[in-house]
Every structure is written in C-alpha cells, then in structure tokens.
Amino acid sequence: MEPIIIVLIILVVLVFIALIKTIQVIPQASAAIVERFGRYTRTLNAGLNIVVPFIDSVRNRVDLREQVVPFPPQPVITQDNLVVNIDTVIYYQVTDARAATYEVASYIQAIEQLTVTTLRNIIGGMDLERTLTSREEINAALRGVLDEATGKWGIRVNRVELKAIEPPTSIQDSMEKQMRADRDKRAAILQAEGVRQSEILRAEGEKQSSILRAEGEAKAAALRAEGEAQAIRTVFESIHAGDPDQKLLSYQYLQMLPKIAEGDANKLWIVPSEIGDALKGLGGAIGNFGPMTGGNGGGAAPAAPTATGKEAAPRREQPRID
After folding, report:
1. For residues 238 and 250, what is the distance between their CA atoms, to the nearest angstrom?
2. Selection from 308, 294, 302, 306 nearest residue 319 by Cα
3. Positive or negative: CA dihedral 186, 191, 192, 198
C-alpha cells in the first residue's frame, strides 16, 4: 500500500505542476514570449492564457508601458574644444515584444550607447554658446536618430530631454561675469533712458507752459489795448459831442504839463513848441474875463517889436495876481 500511496502523491504533484505551467496569467500592459523547444512560438497578451506544459515555456515578460531611463553624465567636446557634461533622459516604449527580445540583446544598454554617440556627433558641430541655447534643436535631432535606429528593435522613443548641460568651472565663472556685466549695462541703459525721457517731458512741459503763458499775455495785451482804444474812442466822441473851443483845449493842455514833469528821474524838461499858442489862448481867455470881474488894475506894457522890425499889435491887459 505504501508504494501505491507514494505513486499517487507523485502523480498529484505532477498534475499540480502541469496545471501551473498550463495556465499563464499575463498582467495588463504586459506581454510574454512563448518558446517551444527553444524556438519562438507566440506572444501571450494580457489575460488568461493556456500553454502546453513541459513543451512550451515562457521565456520573457515585457512591460509595454512607457519607460523613463536617466543616463549618467557624459563628457562631450564642443566645436570650440570645450568639454561639457550632459545628462540625458530617454522616454521610450516597447511596441513589439518579440523584436525587443530577439533583435537586440539588451535594448536599454543599446539605447544608452546610441544616445552617447549621437549626442557627441550633434554637440561636436556646435560651439558652447549654441549648445547652451539650442536644447530643443538637440532634443529633436537626437530623438530622430534614436527613433530611426530603435524602430527595428520594437521600441519607440517618445521623447529625449537634456536634463543638464554643465560647462567647465572656469567657463561658468566667465559666463557669470559676462551676465553680470550685461545686467549692469542694461540697468545703465534703462536709467539713461529714464533720465532722457524725464528731461524730454520736462522740456515739453516748459514749452507748453511758455506757449500758454505767451498766449495769455498776448490775449491780455490785446484786451488791454482794446480797452484803451475803447476809452480813447469814448473820450474822443465825448469831446466832439461837446464841441470844445480853443480856450478849453489850451487850459487842458496846461493842466497836463505838471504830470509830464512828475518823477524823480526827470532831469530834463522838454517844452513843446505849442506851449506859446496854448499860453496865448489862455491869456486871451483871461483877458476876456478881466473887464467882467473888474480886475485889479495895472497898465499894459507896450508890445515889443517882432523879429521882422514891424510893430506888433498891442497886447491885451493881463490881470496881476498879488
């Protein structure tokens, strides 16, 4: 009985192992390579799969999700013979599990080496300044080469990113000094532009102020002249309306003489030539009023001869004021 029990136990164990090898559960976004006697048979997709036990074997399980692989810094020489260290990050995805298994031994190592060699070819044709400012161009060129080369491996390179570009320390110091000088230059230019704009605005303001002040003074002078003209016109019309005689005009003329002599700065008096006519008219007016008021007496002196030798007309008597 004991040998039979042992045989049954062995059979149960073999059946259990066969079931385990027969039923294969593949997770989502994964694939498995099945070989029969060492030869590729088929690819198992996600879900429950049945294989022939002890004949078919699952060699490799491949993750079909997008993978991110950072590569260590690689020294690269630029066109101007400067060594820079570049960190790269590759985003790739396996699209064909069979090709990724049989076309290349290790696709991760193959992608890394291809990235390094392609990167050296691209950076070798650029100087340092262009390398630092052309990341998008480098990424596009590197992705194109990698995508073309890895297509036959069943891998699609989605993105290539340059994580860091580190030039030598001496170059970094020179770049910092240059950037500081550029910032100081821009600050000085902006300050000068501000001062210039301020001066322009101030000059424009003074110009507008002068123009407005001149216009105001001109309008004030015009209004003042118009007022004086109106006053003169009114006086002139009033004089003509009153019809004054020569005696009144002579009297007004003599009243204006003291106003002409006013002021401490008047050192010289200019007596107009018309003063004689005014005095004659005023004297005639006073002579006419003398007989009416009775006068204070006093004889008139004989008239002096004129410059031509003829006798002058007798002068009228002038009242004497004691």
Report:
1. 17
2. 294
3. positive
Within 8 A by CB and 6+ apart from 228, the residues are none
Where do the DSSP E strands lie in 64-179? 66-77, 83-94, 155-166
Question: Does pLDDT of 185 surpass 70?
Answer: yes
Token match 């073309």: residue?
A: 148
Phi (first) and psi of residue 63, to 5 degrees: -85, 120
Distance CA 257, CA 252 (A): 9
For residues 110 and 303, give the distance between their C-alpha atoms in angstroms, rounded to a whole number.
147
The amino acid present at 48, given as its one-letter code, is: L
Query: Using only C-alpha atoms, what is the Rg of the chain?
Result: 62
64 vs 41: CA distance, rounded Å: 19
The tens digit of pLDDT for each residue in 43-79 reads 999 888 888 888 888 888 899 999 999 988 888 888 8
Residues in a beta bridge with 62: 31
- Secondary structure in 3-state letters for 4-20: HHHHHHHHHHHHHHHHH
Tokens of 27: 């997770």
pLDDT at 278 over 80: no
**pTM score, whole prediction:** 0.51
The pLDDT, as a whole number, for residue 91 is 92
Say if residues 110 and 152 touch (Cβ distance below 8 Å): no
